Amino acid sequence: MDLDAVRTFVAAADAGQFQEAAAELAITQQAASKRIAALERNLGVRLFTRTPRGAELSIDGQAFLPHARELLRVAERALMSVRTGSRPLRVDVIASRGAATGLMRDFHRAHPEIELDVLMLFDIETALAAIRSGTIDASFRAVTAPGRPLPEDIQSVRVLDEPLELLTGPAHALAGARSVPIAQLAGHRIWMPGIVPGTEWASYYDDLIAEFGLTIEATGPNFGSDALLDTIADTPALATFMGARTRLVWPATHGLRRIPVTTPTPVYPHSLLWHRANPHPALPILRTHLTTTSPGHRTTGTWVPAWAAPR
Amino acid sequence: MDLDAVRTFVAAADAGQFQEAAAELAITQQAASKRIAALERNLGVRLFTRTPRGAELSIDGQAFLPHARELLRVAERALMSVRTGSRPLRVDVIASRGAATGLMRDFHRAHPEIELDVLMLFDIETALAAIRSGTIDASFRAVTAPGRPLPEDIQSVRVLDEPLELLTGPAHALAGARSVPIAQLAGHRIWMPGIVPGTEWASYYDDLIAEFGLTIEATGPNFGSDALLDTIADTPALATFMGARTRLVWPATHGLRRIPVTTPTPVYPHSLLWHRANPHPALPILRTHLTTTSPGHRTTGTWVPAWAAPR
DNA sequence: CCCAGTCACAACCAACGGTTGTATCCATAG
DNA sequence: CTATGGATACAACCGTTGGTTGTGACTGGG
């Protein structure tokens, strides 16, 4: 199906005749006729009933018309998504099911008129480079990686501290606990596959291990969250960490348990990063939305890595 | 923008390389490379970063990808809308803002998984022919036109009696009335432009005029409901009829009044018509939905044309 | 150090899609 | 009844697009 033909179809449907549609599109009447004939041949139905005074939609044409308009609308938006200047706000989130995605969903609900593109970059270095080059407009990240202060031209605001919970199967030793002190996790096998060295997550868990003497197995390739959850559900000796706000798309029947961790509760600090000179009109709206809906952060009873602690 | 190029882009993004994408689409690697190069040229951005081991999405490519998928999805649905066999349920309504449209909206809310195409045919004759030929699946109409009994192979069920209300501007003599007996309308000018002779509406109003001695001016071309409402709002001597369920998209500030008509209340009887042998799986669901949510019809205090009265 | 595997460029060719010119149809006016 | 105007479709022509084949450049692994 050719988008030019669809455009011609919509123009002809609106005009009621091919000639005027052809004039609008700056082609000859014959070309418009050929385009629509080709479209009809591809679809296998007649879209217009031709009369000596114009062309009016057949019933199939009437049914097709709204779909054709939608198609052009979507094509237009697809084009806009890569047009510099007045393109959708591009926001990088740290994981597709994480808290930042939920925050963006909330933002979209609050401001459905703002066009959004949400993507996931590899690590904070990539994100910073993209923010500085203007390729993306904002990023949800832990505010700094260890030893690397934020550049001068990047601004940030802390928007959410997400508590980590323990995720176990029904047969796990801690499955019945309503909460578990972090000291009790020493000696339990905690499995976190797919943590890529060099990313903020790796730094975060390195610090967590060092601080509380945990044994985290980060080995093994990441076969996707489905495989991870499957293994956790079936293996009594394994557990994993998961952000409290992470949404699980998983049959509840598997009996996975989410157990809060306490004394202290490790939290992952999400900040929004952006370039101080970014002119995108939707960016201040996002910032305002996040700061006004942020629940704030407790500092007592929680733990964050030293490099992420508020100065 | 070429849909084939978009398809190639999505395939390459999924495969992570051009060669495999090209194999899926049954073209050569060079052709896929050219298609994506052309797409990048059209969009003005680089979608992939080429490596000697494949091609991975650039940031622009990541932003474009969901739009590309959506575009292909919409194109697929546009194609289905004219494919015989498993195409969306095609329902004809009598007016774009009338009660039947509202009923279909309710149905769509109740069954969002059912694909619908709603269209407006010229009159009941066209609708019957389209139902018999299978071009449409159902039609909302007054069950018969005068003197023309329903064919044997068409079935019908009465789903809604829609009361007619008087619509006036704020300066009209009846503007303050909470309701008006139909006998009081004799002598008032009632304006109904755009009623096409030969349609059910024309028959309906002919009967209404004959029964209650009204003077309805059906003259003048239809300049659209905006122009009609504009004139009604500004002309104290004019009023018009409007279905009680008709949704008005009109600034409330113009002070239009909707006044129920009584003793009796003229109602327009909407029936659903369909072919007894139509195999569309969604058709019985629509019928069940309509009959179970139908408010039923009062017969006392209401008026319908003799040809539409239940036998 | 070579090889396997990837993408890009060049040359060639068929097919698509545009234009111009023309025939046909029908409603309307004279 | 006929001429005319306005609409679509068909035919011929032709440039450009988009496919294939052949080849070169690049890079990571054995």
Automatic annotation (TrEMBL), chains A, B:
Alphabetized SUPFAM superfamilies for the sequence: Periplasmic binding protein-like II (SSF53850), Winged helix' DNA-binding domain (SSF46785)
Gene Ontology cellular component annotations, sorted alphabetically: protein-DNA complex
Pfam families given in the database record: HTH_1, LysR_substrate
PROSITE patterns linked: HTH_LYSR
Lineage: superkingdom: Bacteria
MF term (GO), any: DNA binding
Domain HTH lysR-type, first and last residues per copy: 1-58
Gene3D superfamilies, per database record: 3.40.190.290, Winged helix-like DNA-binding domain superfamily/Winged helix DNA-binding domain
UniProt keyword terms in alphabetical order: DNA-binding, Transcription, Transcription regulation
Family: Belongs to the LysR transcriptional regulatory family.
Name under which the protein is recorded: LysR family transcriptional regulator
Species per Swiss-Prot/TrEMBL record: Acrocarpospora phusangensis
Taxonomic placement: Bacteria, Bacillati, Actinomycetota, Actinomycetes, Streptosporangiales
